[in-house]
Amino acid sequence: MPLSKTFSKHVTHPRKNVFVSLGVGLLFFLLFLTIATSVTWHKRDQRNDRLANYTGQFVLQTFNELSQTLSPLLAWTQSQCSAVSSDLTARAAFTSNVRAMLLVRDGQAFCSSATGAMDLNIHQIAAEVDWDKNIDITLVPGTPMLPEKPAIVFWLKDPQHPRSGVLTTLNVNLTPWLLLTSREPDIAGMAIATSRYALSTWNARVVESSALPASPLRTLTLPGYPIHILLYGDTLADRDVHMILLAAVLLWVLASLSTYLLLSLRASPGKEILLGIKRGEFHVDYQPVVNARTGETYGLEALMRWTHPTEGRIPPDAFINYAEGQNLINPLTRHLFELVARDAQQLSKALPKGTKLGVNLSPLHLNAPEFRTDVQNWIAAMPRDHFSYVFEITERTMVAESNAEAIFDWIHDRGIKIAIDDFGTGHSALIYLEKFKFDYLKIDRGFVQSIGRETVTSPVLDTVLNLARKLNLNTVAEGVETAAQANWLIDRGVTHLQGYFFSRPQSPDDLSAWLALQQPWPAFVELSKRG
Fold this sequence. Notes:
This protein is an alpha/beta fold. The protein has 17 helices and 20 strands. It has helices at 3-11, 14-70, 81-93, 175-182, 238-266, 269-279, 316-325, 329-350, 363-366, 371-381, 401-413, 429-435, 445-448, 458-470, 483-491, 508-517, 522-530, and strands spanning 98-105, 108-112, 116-121, 135-140, 151-157, 165-171, 187-193, 197-200, 203-208, 218-221, 228-233, 282-291, 297-308, 312-314, 355-361, 387-394, 417-423, 440-443, 474-477, 496-497. An 8-stranded mixed β-barrel has the order 12-13-15-16-17-18-19-20, surrounded by 5 helices. Helix 2 (14-70) packs antiparallel against helix 5 and helix 15 (483-491) crosses helix 17. The radius of gyration is 51 Å and the shape is rod-shaped. The chain starts with a helix and ends with a helix.
């Protein structure tokens, strides 16, 4: 797997990003659903209030006008029908929706605007009317002349004479209300109800009021009139719900995709490295380098570590190689210098003067224009004249030949040693040894692990050690994990050893404690006895 992909796998988790994105999208979905439903419900509720108020005002105005029209007729309840018949007919003709006006005296209808003189007990027309009320209203399934058509019966009592007054039958015309409510998708219908009977837009017949659906959307009571207007429907129509759900789903998808894109961009390895520097997620561990002749701590190698806040520890090979590929190695190395300079104040108290301090450098940084300034600033920040410095450069990514010699001369001029790291793992190791002057040759741990085993790398290790002796180079064997490996290397003239057999990389605090308790390591004691 390419290093960039290895690194990306540690700091970016597509599956996790997908779940987070879907969660954010769901949050937007629920938030939008709640807000949109609330706003739509509120608007519909306001529109329903306006519709109910308009309907109530219209019906109230109709009954008020009817009352005003009928009031003068109360004086005719004691007159002869022949005297008022024509005027009664005219009044009925010019009053909207009036089917007939009847003059009533002593409980008998004696004059009709439709038929003239008559003699009919009013109970036969509307048995439910309360004649003792000044105004009463009821619904009837029909009238004598139109028995199949429901009507509203409006009773206006003559206050001067008992059981006398004007009884008016009105055509029930719900068409205006049907046209009005048809524009409101949440209104399913309406009904007119009296104490006992009701008439609705979905039923052409008069029914018992108890037969109406429960929980109307709005109930209007007209002041002064025993009649109710009921509106039925839902505050949110199906169309509203479908549109809100569709918009919420689209927002969910959009929010999820946008979040995934932002997470992918934000969690790009390059940005994660810069954020890690800013947030202080990097630290340095120090691994002792032991003098193979005396068994004492000769120096330290500074090893940068990264603890990601969510992914934990990121392998150094992953983020360092990625930083090189993304031109981020320079700020990362400068941060390494800052961390080492900070730790050096504590380490200088636990280590003697002259201790070697090795720092890994990238050839990309060596060729950078600011390299010299970075090194000078770092040395100035370190404890004065306490440490000796070693720059470790990986052989498999060596600097450009045209510029290497001048850079190495500049480093040596400042008393800094140069080590070629992971020697033997590249393709041009011998060429580099011939061309450039190095002070240390670090043997890759892969060669050390082959000690005592017959592998293809075993002869290579012998060749490397022979070459180092001929070139008079100090050698540092990395990855020493057993006493047998240490003794084998010492027997063959390796000058310095480094590995878990002596110490793992440690924090400054742990290293200081380790140094205070350090004892001669067993392999050195055994070698001394043999010598």
